[in-house]
Write the structure tokens for this entry.
Amino acid sequence: MRRCADAAKFRPARTQARRALVSLLAGFGAGAAAQEVALFNLTDVEGHVSTNYLGNRDATRQAGPAGVTRSTQGDSDWRNEVFLMTHSYVYHPNFLTLDIGGGPILQAGSLETDGSTTQSRGVLYNLVGRANFLRGKPVSGALFYEHLNPVLSIAPGQTLQQETSRYGMEVAATAGALPTPLRFELTRSESNGRSDERVMHDRTDQLNLRLSRDIGKQGATQIQFQAVRQESLSGSTSLPIQSSTSDSRSLDIDTRLPFGSDGEHELLNLVSLNRHDFVVDGRAMPQQSDLNLLLDLRMKHSDALTSFGTAHYSNNDNGDRAAVTQSASTGVAWSPDKELELSAGGRIETQQAGPFSVSDRGVDAMVRHKQALPLGTLTASYRVRHDQRSQRAQASDARAIGERTILGGTSPSALSQPRIVAGSVVVSNLTRSQVYVENIDYTLTTVGQTTRLQRLIGGSILDGEDVLVDYAYDLGGTFASAETDQTFNLGWNLSPRLSLYLRESRSTVEVLSGTPTFALGDSRSRLYGLRTDLPFSAAGVPLSAGATVERERIVDPISPLVRNAADLYLQTEEPLFDLGNVGVTLHRMTMDYASSAQDMDLRGYGLRFSTRWMGVDVSAVRNFECDRGGPTVRCRVDNAINAQWRERKLAMNARLAHGRETQGGFERSHTLFQVSLRRDL
């Protein structure tokens, strides 16, 4: 009797489940006229066969007191691949679709270091799969997996052979299923690889959750949460590598509320919360976190009159000390016609960071006028800004942790904070698995109060690599000051093809109380330039030429500077004598510092040619630049030839590239040859 009672109790739920399933299948069947309903249907098979060859060679030369030392490294990789991809569905394409593919890779390669060669052969594989559930329905999802073997370009002329895997799931729900539509993603990826100079072992787990909802007729809010955990044992083979683990979590809330009779006003509310933890070689680093709240109001009172108001709160803890910043600003702009524009505003900001506090208040105004002339148009503007600053520093310095910067080529990159404490700079890679060495991997130079970070080509930092920089900087002492900045701009557009411009700036600083630990003084600058773009024809060939020329002079008590720059170009608009398009660029820049030896005298040029010959698209590029102005001469030249050809399902790509860098007595050159042939099935 009890079993009968239990069966009767659950019968309504089972009946409801059957009805839901029948309704779901009936919904799929409703579109069966376009897609056949079947237990399983293979809809398409595609694929390709390909062969790829990659050769890379790197050579270094260093002149020193003991003579000249040379080193060569190179690697080659030849891969023959067969790949097939199948597309199918179960019952109906909107119920379950399957995309599954893969194939073997026959690989042969070699690694050479100073005459010592290591050969390798093996069989690799690619495998990808994706299952999409309930496509186009209120609730849908997917499972996916991929195992690939790409060759990654990590720097000009440098590649890394990788083995990667990535798998996870996706779930999405629309407003038809939930009051708040959402999208959920959970993935894990693993990357392993090695070249003659780099090694990579990374694993990343990532969770993404995004919710969105409309508010009223035009407003909307979006919430996004992300959690990422990365474990890394990657870096240069010439430096010790530490195991590192990073955990980051972020929450962002973005709300936009248009209002007014036509939605002409908007209130924006942004909330962000971030937290970051690093564990390096088993040692936990100070936790970093920040909270930001922003209110931004934009109002359009008429076609001529607009205004704004913002309020911002920030609590940033970089692991050394927490800084609380509060700021507010407001402004109004009036443009009665196309020729005249006026604006004015005010702001206030306070910051408290342990023993350091600062208060800033300021106002600004601007007027811009455009006047038609018998020859062209003249535009003039004047901007004035006045600030009063009061700061109290009970400590001599503070720390910046994890400042991110890119080191491209050998150009110096300025750090954001002035007056950096000597000996406090630490540079590491993004995962903090490796710490770079000053004067081997990078060098530091100082111009005025600015410290610059510069990559050394003989070190372990890749060309174009992102790095993290930690350092201490001088807070400046306890004082109060007032500063007034004035900027005047004048632009004369003689024609759409020719313009002249002038900018004059002046800044006056007055110390009201206290004694700052650094120099404060008046400064002024003047910049004038010319910009032109001229189309013309020579010997029946349409051409275009252009130039930008500037001269700037900065006078201040810290780092006076004279800068001259000129950029010129000449290019064909149609193939030259039916052979191909040609382009030439010339570049010159000088920077002369009165108080520093870190001057610049940079000269460079670029050549490019492109044509189509016997069905093959061919392009050639050469770029050269050399800076002889500073204590160390640095030069760079890059050459490349590319060819692409396609005939129906057969495609060919080829690239030959050679580059050379010199920095002082060190020289590095690299050569890369790559060719691939692919036949789609």
In short: DSSP finds one helix and 37 strands in the chain. Residues 154 and 160 are 7 Å apart (CA to CA).
